[in-house]
Amino acid sequence: MHASAPPYMHGWFHRLQAAARASLAHESHGDIRYIIVAERISIYQVDEDDMEVFLLLHSVVMHVTAALVILVYIPLSAPVKLLVRAFVKPLRKEDLRGKVVLITGASSGIGEELAYQYAKEGACLALVARREQALKAVAAAALERGAPDVLVFPGDVSDPDQSRRAVEETVAHFGKLNHLVANAGIWSSCSFDQVTNITAFTKLMDVNFWGSVYPTYYALPHLKASKGKLIVCSSAAGTVATSRMAFYNASKAAQLRFYETLRTEVGSEVGITILTPGYVESEITKGKGIQKTGEVAVDEDARDAQIGVFPVGRVEALCEVALDGIRNGDWYVTWPSMYRPLQLIACLAPEVLDWMSNAMYKEAATAQGRRPLGQRILEATGGKRLYPPSLLQPRIKTD
C-alpha cells in the first residue's frame, strides 16, 4: 500500500486483499464473468502534495469569486436593486387583509406594536405570550385598530409543547397560517466576569433561540402550504460584538445564522425576513433582563451603562419600517439605519469595533461607583432626556 496512506487504512486494505485471495478467482453468472485478482487490487490514494494542490485550487477559486463579487457584481447589481426597490416592489407589496399572523412575545414591545401594525392592515391575529392579562389588553387594542379577529394563547414558546399547541390552535381557529413572527426574547447586560450564577443564563438560549425555533418547526408545514412568510426578530447584537452582552449577543447570533441557513433550505417556498434592530423602546431598554445574579429584574442603572450615549428609537417607527420590509419580501430590516455601517465595520475592520467597544465600556471610579465611559457621558450631558418618554417612566407589565 502507498506509503502516504493514513494508518487507519492499512488494516482495511490488507483484510480486503486477503479476502480477495481466498475467494474464487473466477465466478460465472450467466454470460457475465467477474474476475477477481487480489494482486491487482489497487486503491487510488491522495498524498499530502495532492491534497495541498487541491486546497490551493479551492482557495484560488474562492478568492477570485470574492474579487468578482466585490468588483463586478456589487457595482452592477446595486443600481438594479435600487430601481427594483423604488419601482417594482411597491407594485408587488403584499396585501395583508384577511391574512393570519401568529406573533410570539406579543404582550409588549416590538411584538405588541407589530400586532397593531398588522391590525391596521386588516390581518387576523394569533397572539402568544406568558402574561395573559397583558395579552388580552393588546388583543382588545388590535381589534380597535382594525383586526377582524384576534386569538389569544397564553404560553411560553421556550416549551416545545406549548409552541406546538399555539400553532395548532391558530390553524384550527383560522384554517390557515400566513405569517409567523418569532419575536419572544429576553436580555442581559453584565460583564462575563461579574456573573455570579452562570446556569441562570441558559434561559437566554431557551427563549431567544429555541423560543423561535420551536414555533418555526411546527409552523413551517403550514407556511409552506400557504406560501407564507417567516419573520424573526433578531438583533444588531447578533452581528456586532458589543461588550457586556456576551450571552445575549451569542443567542442572537445563533438565531441569525439559523434563519439564514433555513432560508437556503426552504428557497422560495417560504419568505424569510430577519429583523436586526438596534436599541428600540421596549421592556428590554427599560432595563428588564437577566441580571448578573441570575434573577430577572429591572435595573435602570445597568441599562444606562449598556446604552450610554446611543440613541433609542421609537418602537412604532421600527415596526412601520419592519412591516414595509415584510410586505416587500426583504431579507433583512435593520433600524435605526446607524447600525448598518456598524455591521460593515464589524465585517471589514473588526479591530476598530473592538477598540470602540473597549473604550465605550471601560469602567472608571466615580462618586456614584464604577461607571463605563458611555454612562459617564450620559450623566454629564443629561442625554437621558433624549430617551423616549416610555423609558423615563419604566412601567413593566407584570400580569
From TrEMBL:
Known Pfam families for this protein?
Answer: adh_short (PF00106)
Membrane topology qualifier: Single-pass type II membrane protein
Q: One GO molecular-function annotation for this sequence?
A: oxidoreductase activity
> Where are the membrane-spanning stretches?
53-76
Subcellular location field: Membrane
The family database entries (SUPFAM superfamilies) matched by this protein are listed as: NAD(P)-binding Rossmann-fold domains
Please tell me one Gene Ontology term that the record gives under cellular component. cytosol
Q: Which of UniProt's keywords are assigned here? A: Membrane, Oxidoreductase, Transmembrane, Transmembrane helix
Question: Where does it primarily localize?
Answer: membrane
User: InterPro entries under this entry?
Assistant: NAD(P)-bd_dom_sf, SDR_fam
Record family assignment? Belongs to the short-chain dehydrogenases/reductases (SDR) family.
Q: What is this protein called?
A: Uncharacterized protein
Upper classification of the source organism reads: Eukaryota, Viridiplantae, Streptophyta, Embryophyta, Tracheophyta
